[in-house]
Amino acid sequence: RATMKSLRFISAEVFVSNAEFARKRLGGVAHNLFPLLFKASYLLEQGGVIHDLVENWPLIDFNMRKLLGTTVDYEEDLSHRTCLVCLESCLTGLRDYVLNRSSLYVKRLKVVDLTGIKDVEVQFCDCKKAMGRWARTQMLSKICLDLLVYLQRAQHKADTSEINIDVLIDLFVTERNYELVVQALLKRCHCPLKICCVAFRSDNLALHKFFYIIKLADPSSLRKLEIVHNVRLEMEHLEMLFSTLRFPLLMSLTLPARTFNVRRFTATDEQMLCSVAEKMGETMQLTELSVPYSILTGRIRKLLSPLKTPLKVLDVSNCSLNLADMDYLASSSHANHLEVLDLSGHDLCDVYPSKFLKLLRHSSSVLRSLTLEDCNIQDTHLNMLIVGLSPCQKLQEFKFLGNPLSSRALKHLFAFLCELPMLKNVEFPVPRDCYPVGITYPIDDASLCIYDHQKYERVAEELKLILLRANRDDVKASTPLFGSYDAAVQETNNELGAYLIKSFKETLEKFTTSLKMS
Which residue, 343, 395, 387, is CA-closest to 364? Predict the structure, then answer.
């Protein structure tokens, strides 16, 4: 659907479409037109104009969410366009704002907010190249360090001493950009551009490096903390982290797999779990918690009950929850506020069906996203699943990959899903009858792609036809066999792959050495 543009926005597009003309005439542009021209330039990917607009920004703040979001003149939200050309131009323009002594306007800029950018799978810009969160972290850090070097060499300190701009950003740090980001944070107080970390993501990083950089990032200002994949954080490290640092504004916490493992708990570990939970409740404002692949059997109450604020997002996928855990979740105050819920890896319909239905019923008024992957949902469970989903009228996303459902059951389920008015995205499994007879679930990675592809395509077309006949062509239905798109993982997959190969090599060498010794 074409988005309506005001005459002001159309005029702005015409003005910036001739980059050379526009750049020469910025000096005569009223201050209040800069945001309008910026969005028009971003839409048309006019990198040179974007650079000059930022370099001469006359306003006190520069907020990407507000600038690219829905506006009166142009309703389309462009914040999901992480266009390389546009974002590079923004950051170099910001650098030159500091260096430009002959700026067209008085330098009033105090706050630059880059946190409103959304990383997505498909880029709609012409260049088709994205600048992801990791690359934005890298470039901003480099710009800050380059500025310091340039100012020292050119002795511009007197010209820039009055410039202090807080740059709000979501940092993404791995082994590859660690040193650069550390240096930028260490020298932050000397740079006119002050990196202010609002969200922090760490992957593929040694534990001692994580502890060092998280202190530099100023935990007191963090609202979101993601520690994922190859950061070997265990419960004792988490307890140490929360004991030494305070996160008073933290609302979202993601922890790596096996942070908690009750199968090897001692009495000391039980006390430590209580300590971690208490600190999460007393010193944070958590509304989002993700602890996938931790072993939390019988401990969900201990972990969640100290929280002072109800959770809106909860990921307890593959956490080996038992009946008592599900009973607590269904009855707790959190249930009525859950907007995003991931219960993957639990046999919900066979082991605790009543608790599962109760949880869905309590969260139905607000639930937007539900993930039930590898939950052993079979054809015999279909009616129960439909009963559970029926009250969830605000559901926008439903993911249930890895469940042994037949083609017939999927068609029945899709006919029901058409009735959920706000549904936009469905991730469904390859039908069981497309796999060889005797396949066991959960299906291992080696067997995941060994199915009748032609039959799957026919079934997928029939499912989409069910949506079309119900006038639900607004629903996207897909089968991403190896999981949903993750922008952060996609951006750093080369580094992650190299790390995995290195780890495998080291394990193999240790195994070979042990064989020789024996």
Answer: 395
- Global pTM reads 0.91
Q: Give the Cα separation of 52 and 499 in Å (integer).
A: 40
Q: Which amino acid is at 52?
A: D
One-character DSSP codes across 166-229: EEEEEEEE-TTTHHHHHHHHHTGGGSSEEEEEEEEEE-S--HHHHHHHHHHT-GGG-SEEEE-S
pLDDT of res. 115 = 95
Q: How many residues does the chain have?
A: 518
Through-space distance between the first and last CA atoms of the chain, rounded to whole angstroms: 70
Give the pLDDT of residue 502: 55
Is the CB of residue 336 less than 8 Å from the CB of residue 366? Answer: yes
pLDDT in tens, 298-341: 999 999 999 999 999 999 999 999 999 999 999 999 999 999 99
Please say whether the beta carbons of 98 and 192 come within 8 A: yes
- Residue 149 neighbours by CB under 8 Å, 6+ apart: none
Report CA-CA distances (Å) from 91 to 19, 96, 512.
Answer: 18, 9, 50
Using CA atoms, how far apart are residues 10 and 3, in angstroms rounded to an integer?
Answer: 12
Do you find a cis peptide bond into 421, omega within 30 degrees of 0?
no
Degrees (nearest 5) of the Cα angle 391, 323, 286? 70
**Domain carrying residue 104:** 7-131
What's the confidence (pLDDT) of residue 321? Answer: 97
Residue 23 is assigned to a structural domain of this protein: yes
**Residue 52 placed within a domain:** yes
Contact 92, 45 (CB under 8 A): no
